[in-house]
Automatic annotation (TrEMBL):
Annotated source species: Parerythrobacter lacustris
Protein name as catalogued: Fatty acid desaturase
Keywords per UniProt: Membrane, Transmembrane, Transmembrane helix
Transmembrane region(s): 60-89, 109-128, 162-188, 221-241
Pfam families: FA_desaturase
Lineage: Bacteria, Pseudomonadati, Pseudomonadota, Alphaproteobacteria, Sphingomonadales
InterPro entries assigned to the protein according to its UniProt record, in alphabetical order: FA_desaturase_dom, Fatty_acid_desaturase
Domain of life assignment: Bacteria
Domain Fatty acid desaturase positions: 75-335
Amino acid sequence: MEKTLDPAISVPAAAPRASREQFRASDDKVMLRLARDLTKDIADANPSIYWPDMLLSAGIGYAAMAGAILVSSVPMAIALGLISALALYRALMFIHELTHIHRNALPGFRLAWNVLVGIPMLVPSYMYEGVHTIHHKRTQYGTIEDPEYLPLALMKPWSLPLFVLVALLAPVAFLLRCAILLPLGAAIPPIRRLTWERFSALSINPDFRRRPPEGEMKGRVFWQEFGGFVWSWALIGSVFAFGWRPLLIALAIVSFTAVLNQLRTLVAHLWENEGEPMTVTAQFLDSVNVPPPGFAAELWAPVGLRYHALHHLMPSMPYHALPEAHRRLKGELGNASTYDGANHPGMLHLVGRIARSTMAVR
C-alpha cells in the first residue's frame, strides 16, 4: 500500500545533507515520526518468509560443505566451500533477528535455529541475546558500556587489518571454548566466571564484561552450552574416525564466514564516536545503509543487515520489511535529507573512508 506524507509535516525540499554533528543535542523529529507512521502496516514478522529462508540457507550450506569435503577436485572443493560459507553465513545471521523479534512472533524458531545452526556452528543464540540489545540503548550506544562499539575510525591504521584478520581464529576459539573452558568452568567457579564475563558474548569491545544470566535466560544458557559441549567433542572425535581433512575443511569454511562477518561489522558503522552518549538521529547517522542498486551487499550483509542504519531507527522491524521501509522513507524525505545521510554506495567506499580517518590519527 502506497503511503503519503502527512500534510501536517513539512519537509524541506532541498536542505543541505545532514551531518551527525548537527544532531548531537537534538533529534530530527520529522524523520523519527515518519519512520514510525509510514511502516506500521509492515511491522509483523512473517513466518512464511523466516522459516524457508533459514532452512534453505542452512540446507544449502551443509550440503555444499559435505560436497567440499567429499570431492577430489580442488577447484570444485573451493567453489563448494565458497557456496557453503555464503549460505551458512546467511543462516547464521538470523541470530540478529532472534534478539529483536517478539518472543511469541515465531513459535519454535529460536529452538530450531539453535539446533540446526547455532549449536553446530558453536554460536548459540545466548551469545547475542541480552548483549546486542545494549548496543541499541540510547544512553549506551557508542559508549564504553556498548559491547559492539569501538571507535575504529579514530584508532591507528594497523587496527583495521588486525580487526578483520583476528576473525580467522574465531572457529578454533569457539571450539576450545565449548570443549575446554565450559567443562572446566563447571568444576572451577573462577574459570566459569571468566568464561562468562569475557567469552560468552559476540562483542568487539575488549572492556565489556557480561553480567550473569537471569530468569529464563539461565535455562537457555544451560541447554545451549550443553549442546555446544557435546557437539564440540563430536567434532574433535571425528578426527579419529575420518581423519583431519573433514574438520579442517569445515573450520576453513567457518573461518571465511567469520571474516566476512567481521568485514560487515567494520562497515556497519562509521565508528566516529569518542564515547559520549548520542541522540537517536546521531546514532542513525553513525550507522550505515547500503541500499540497492547492486547485489553484492545482499551477500556480505544478508538478512536485512544492508539496512543497518534503518534498523537502528526501528530495531524491531523484521528484516523482510526493511527494503519497503527504506523505499517509503527515501521516497518521502528525498536525496538531501537526514535519512539520506546514512546511505552509502558500498563496502569499498566505506572501508576507504574509515581507513583515511585512521591515517589522520596522530
